[in-house]
Structure formats: structure tokens, C-alpha cells
Amino acid sequence: MAYMIKAEDCTGCGSCEFECPNRAVRMKGDIYVINPDKCTECVGKFDAPQCVAACPNDAVVHA
Amino acid sequence: MEQKVVSLESLGRTSAARSGPPACAIGDCGTPRKGGSAELPEHVREKIKEHPCYSEDAHHFFARIHVAVAPACNIQCNYCNRKYDCSNESRPGVVSERLSPEQAVRKVKAVAAAMPNLSVVGIAGPGDALADHRRTFETFRLLRETLPDLTLCLSTNGLALPDHIDDIRAAGVDHVTVTLNAVDPHVAEGIYAWIFWDHARRTGLEAARILIERQLQGIEMLTAAGVLVKINSVMIPGVNDGHLEAVNVAVKERGAFLHNVMPLISDPAHGTHYGLTGQRGPTPAELKTLQDRMGDGAKLMKHCRQCRADAVGLLGEDKSQQFGLDALPENPQIDPEKRAAYRAIVEKEREDRRKEAADARAAIRRFGPLEPMLVAVSSKGGGRVNQHFGHAREFQIFEVSEAGARFTGHRRVDRYCAGGEGEDDVLDATLMALDGVGAILTAKIGRCPRQRLADAGIAVVDDFAFDYVETAIARWLAARAAEEDTARIA
Ligand code: SF4
Ligand code: SF4
User: CB–CB of A46 and B76 under 8 A?
Assistant: First the structure.
């Protein structure tokens, strides 16, 4: 159960990292990656996965 | 490195032709012009006198740096696409380099060491300064510690603004720019694709309503807290152009200090929604008509250059390329004496200019044309006619009539002179950019462009090089009137 970031669409803006309630997103080089062990898909916290809703480039997809 | 501050030499010089005051100064009663800074309360004048974006006068002398520490954004505007980052571009939302707060401070120190006229550090993106606010306020905190004499400012879309008034005050930020394109949700709906607010992406009217409510609330809270607020509005023909007067009224009511209407920059190559759907930007004439309709000089800013989020230098120039992270010196030394010396010279310049201005104004009123005419000026700073035609990347446009000379904005052009050669196709574009202009005042101009401009019906004037702009206009009008008299007698 996790989301992932498509490297080719990520501009490294960090909106996902800022919004993630579980600190599952971290910077790696110029872009961001999601740690599948920490990602809960925001279930129980928010209606929508925060990283997906915040990303301006539709770079976050279901793993 | 090219000259980075208005050179002291260029400030001191005057045209060789000077002989006495521009014309007999009749009947200047000394009343401050309506809308001039004389109307501002003392504490506000003190705050803005070194801020190039808030004071038309300061922008001739003082430089700013934007540090691109805020890439995250919480809304999607139809005129923005942060995916493409091209170093040839000059528009808000674009940067070539992203900085951590620590890197930002290093860069500011290097620029302050190289430019004694640096007075302002702003955070304006490339996303929204208050989206990932941690980075923004950490940067301000570090800057306050290391360079306490710099003025701090930030730009925001306003969505998160009401949540951060205390942070803004605690950081010592006393200038905030809010981009506000509409106060009617039905208009705003066409400008924003979505907002991310309260943990959800919202679209359409709902998004527009929330955004406007938050923006106006934030503006009210800022002005109540004594922070100077400038409003930026992007003029989008057919979308909000007819609505911006209402925006102007709304922000004045809430105590905004300045309102800056800027033209939409739209090009399919930018990949923005507007670019891709063929939404055009306004022509210079449309922009000016709207600004004229909105009237009221004190509240309308016309010298904005729509800087990139990493711009460095005087407004209208951008030295960001020279201050890339790799190029920064290890331990830049800031010389407080140089900074103080520069400020002293600027004070003197301003005093001189004020002294000349009264005479110049009287002459313009006496010799100015009945019908307003547009005069273009090439200047590289200091409020003087001190740039060669071929070096100009922009012209200042003044509307000159019996009523006086009124600065109305800038027109951008490409540099005509490249490596000693004039470029003909550039000249064609320049002539188009100068549409409607009746005369051009410049420090120097080559034979060929002079002829082309004259053929296009533009009077070319280079007799008043290095004069203050108002003085140059006054002297040119007086000379023109004298010539006409001679012609009449003969
Ligand atoms: S889905 Fe939620 S928990 Fe997972 S990475 Fe995105 S924001 Fe974090
Ligand atoms: S929000 Fe999207 S573009 Fe921005 S860093 Fe995250 S995945 Fe990349």
C-alpha cells in the first residue's frame, strides 16, 4: 500500500514532502521519493492522498 | 564583470550643453504633485525610500535580490507552469537554481559584497513563499542574523496568508506583495485551475471563493499589523481586464499601499494553460489605457519589471547569472563603509534632482504640447538620460503635455547593438515596440538607427545626455519652441 513518484514528471518542488502527514517523502538528488514503508496512502487521516492532491505535475501515482 | 551599480561617474555628469536653468522658471508654486511621495506619511516614506519595488524614485538607485528558496506552491494559475525552466526567460515563477536557506544567505552575502546598493532581499517563489513556509522563514531568520540592515520582503498568492501574519511580523518583514487577480469568484474561476487548501484539492467556484476570501482577509490583517502591502494583478484581456478597477477599489479600501497591474506574459512555448490555449496578453496601449482609467498615481505602480524569482540587481537588469552557486566566493567581505558612501551619494543625488525638478516642471508646463505625446527615454539608472540607444533593453515611457511629464511604464526591446554591430531585424522590432512614441531621448545614437527612427516620424534627441530625465525633457521642449519661433520669424 503506497504511492510513488514518477521521476520524469517531478520538478522537485517539494509540495508533496510538505503535505505528507507521515514524513514518507524525502528528497533524493533533485527530486523526491516516497518511502513505501512509511506511506499509508493517508488512509484514516485525509480523504485524499495529500501528495497526489498537492502535486502540480501529476507526478505521484499508485505504486 | 559589467558595472553593477549606477556608476558614481554617471551620477555626477551633466550634459555639456548646460547653461543656466532649463528655461525661466515661471510660476511654479512648489505644490507637490498629486500622487507624489510627498503625500505619504513620514514612517511610510522611511520604509520605502530604499525599496526599488515600492518607490519609483528608489528603483533608480537601489538593487534587490530574490532568493529562490520556495519552490512549492499551493495553487495552480493558468498563466504559470513551473515545469519548464529556461534561463532565457524572464518572468515570475521561473528560476535557474533552487537554494536552501543556508545557500540563499551565502548568495546574498556575495551580492551585498559586490553591490553596495543592495537594499532588499525578497522571497518570491518560484512557487509560493508561504506554501512551504518553513524554508521561507528559516531564510529570513538567518538573514536577519547575518545582514540586519537589509529590508526583507515576500510575495504570495495569499491563500496561506492569514495563517502567517505573526510569522511575518516576527521575521521583521515589513513589505508583502499579494497577487490578486480578481475579487469576484466568477472572474477568478477562469484564472485558477485549482487550489490545495485544508488538505484537499479544490476547483471551480469553490476554489475561487476560498482563495479570494483568504486573500482579502490576509490583506486586511497585514495592513492592520502595519505591514506595507503591494498588490500585483495580472491583466488578462477578456478575462479580468474589465474587472481590475473593482480590484483596485477593493484593495484601496483595505489599506493596500500600491497596486501594480502587469501584463499577462503568454507564449505557447512556456507550456502554460493560457499559452497553450492561445490566450493573449495585453498590448502596451491596452495596459496604459487601463492604468489611466484607474488613475490615482499614489496607488498605481508602473515601474514593475515582472522579475524572475531569482533576479539580482537594479530593476530592469538581471545579474543572476553572475551569482550562480558555483561562482560564489568562499568568504565574501561586505564593506559597510562602501554601503554608507553609496547611500550618501544617493541622498545628494535626490537632493539635486529635487532642486532641478521644480524648474523642469515649470518649463514643461510652459512648452509642453497641448495634446499629450509619448516620449521614450533610454536610461541605465539614476533617473538620467544616460544610456546609448544601442544598449537599451527597455525604454522608459513618459507622457508629456502642458500638464507635465508623467512616467507611464516601460517597453522592452532587444539590445540593438551586439558586439559593435547594429542588428536590422532588432530595429524593426524596436520600432514596433515604440509604436505611438513621438520622440526619443537618448545619450547617444548611431547614424543608421537615427535615420530609421526619423523616417518613422520619431524625433531623435541626444543633446541632453546625462541630464535628469525631467530636465532633459524640459530643455528639449524649450529648444523646440525656440526653433519654432525662429522658423516663424523667418
Ligand atoms: S499518500 Fe499520504 S502518506 Fe503516502 S506519501 Fe502521499 S502524503 Fe505521504
Ligand atoms: S509535488 Fe510533485 S513535482 Fe513536486 S516534488 Fe512532489 S512529486 Fe515532485
Answer: no
Residue B156 belongs to some domain of the structure: yes
Residues 6+ apart with CB under 8 A from A53: A19, B196, B199, B200, B201
Q: Do B200 and A54 touch (CB under 8 A)?
A: no
The set of residues, in sequence order, having a beta carbon less than 8 Å from that of B269 and lying 6+ positions away, is: B275
Domain of residue B225, residue span: 49-327
- Taking the CB of residue B176, how many other CB atoms lie within 10 A of it? 30
Q: Please work out whether the CB of residue A40 comes within 6 Å of at least one atom of ligand 1.
A: yes
Q: Where are the domains of chain A?
A: 3-62
The answer, yes or no, to whether any atom of ligand 2 lies below 6 A from the CB of A24, is: no
Q: Which of B294, B327, B360 is the last residue of a domain?
A: B327
**Is the pLDDT assigned to residue B433 strictly greater than 90?**
no
Predicted TM-score (pTM) of this structure: 0.69
In this structure, the answer to whether residues B17 and B96 fall within a common structural domain is no
B186–A contact, CB cutoff 8 A? no
CB contact under 8 A, B73 and A56: yes
CA of B192 to the centre of ligand 2 (A): 19
Which pLDDT band, with edges at 50, 70 and 90, does B457 fall under?
very high
| B40 belongs to a structural domain | no
Whether B414 and B315 map to the same domain: the answer is no
For ligand 2, atom 8: residue with the closest CA: A10
Whole-angstrom Cα distance, residue B466 to residue B443? 7
**DSSP 8-state secondary structure symbol assigned to residue B464:** T
Instruction: Examine residue B2 and state whether it is found in any structural domain, yes or no.
Output: no
- Residues of B within 8 A of A47 (CB-CB) are 199-200
Query: Which class in CATH covers the domain with range A3-62?
Result: alpha beta
The verdict on B162 and B75 lying in the same domain is: yes
Residue A50 touches partner B, C-beta closer than 8 Å: yes
Lowest mean pLDDT among B112-116, B259-263, B346-350, B466-470: B346-350
pLDDT tens digits for range A9-46: 888 889 999 999 999 999 887 789 999 999 999 999 99
What's the domain count of chain B? 2
User: Closest Cα of chain B to A54: distance in Å?
Assistant: 6
CA B423 to chain centre: 27
| CB within 8 Å of B183: residues ≥ 6 apart | B212, B216, B243, B246, B247, B250
Cα–ligand 1 centroid distance for B71 (angstroms): 19
